[in-house]
Design a protein that fits this description.
Layout: E1 8-9, E2 34-41, E3 44-45, E4 49-52, H1 63-67, E5 70-72, E6 75-79, E7 85-88, H2 90-103, H3 111-124, E8 136-145, E9 158-167, E10 175-180, H4 197-212, E11 217-221, E12 229-232, E13 235-241, E14 244-248, H5 258-269, E15 274-277, H6 281-290, E16 293-300, E17 304-313, E18 316-319, H7 329-340, E19 351-353
Parallel strand pairs: 1-4, 10-11, 10-17, 14-15
Antiparallel strand pairs: 2-3, 2-4, 2-9, 5-8, 6-7, 6-8, 7-19, 8-9, 11-12, 12-13, 13-14, 13-16, 16-17, 17-18
Helix pairs in contact: 5-7
The structure holds 2-OXO-4-methylpentanoic acid.
Length: 354
Amino acid sequence: MLSTQTIHIEKTNNSRLPEVDFSNLEFGQTFSDHMFVSDFVNGEWQAPEIVPFQNFSLSPANPALHYGQAIFEGLKAYKNEDGEISIFRPQANLRRMNVSADRLCMPAFPEDVFMEGLKELLRLDADWIPTTTGSSLYIRPFMFATGEFLGVKPSDTYRFAIITCPVNAYYSMPLRVKVEETFARSVEGGFGFAKAAGNYAGSLYPAKKAAEEGYHQLLWTDGKTHEYFEESGTMNLMFIINDRLITPALSTSILAGVTRDTIIQIAKDHGLPVEERKVSVAEVMEAAQNGTLQEAFGCGTAAVISHIQTIGFRGTDFELPPIDLRKYSPRLAQELNDIRVGKKADTHGWVVKV
Ligand code: COI
């Protein structure tokens, strides 16, 4: 039976910390010493454990490997100059994870155990949290089926785990992106709103084709008409047109980004008008041509705010104003960062102290 009191902790006696070059971190390549694990067996989550980072042992008939019953999340922790650790909006990420779980016929994970387990993990691996500007500890909760069968049906057993890694910004440069009008990331009625492994697997081939053409990422459009923007790569998508922040409204094919929600709130707090609605490719490309598209950017936990410099559309590259002339997105990014690290008041209760 699961309770927050029963987290069994096994510490490593062989920390990899001394080998880490914090000034040269590649996203998602360096993992901290410990991980959190809990298994769902006999209809309930079992007592969680924090153990040294290590491989899992899986049946070759694991349904996550065959049919993709797997979901994940991404959030970040920070450490301030006084050594205090904070996590940004962890409950929002767990809520979304449980929405994803429901869509993929997986069990919800309890919030109290998640919060307690995550805090315990961060206390244990506190020295892994980088403190330089723009860096953080990326937290990756994930859940996958652990059954042993080949029938297409929901598994009876699952594993929930959290691993963490020190990171810098996901994209280090302004992005060249291409409007994707052939492939779709998701479709209405699909599971694009869920943070499911399969959504990312399906995006690899179109992204690879775009990379061959010299683009960092895609601007996904709707799978039916390709007339409306959806997301950008692994991020939500935002435009500034005529001094208004415009972003595609959420739907069954768009991930409800926690960073998206945060940016919208910060923009509103500063009096920037926000429009969440269908955003047509025609409208944005016309604005790019007549000079009213002031800014475009992607936003997400890993990416934070990633400025878009070039939009490729039907064989032509459209250049946007230089980043240092942009009025809104650098300020939104700064404000977001300041709230996360405690330099600005957290008026919305987003920051959770460990
Ligand atoms: C995140 O922003 O946390 C993501 O999930 C992006 C990731 C796939 C790199």
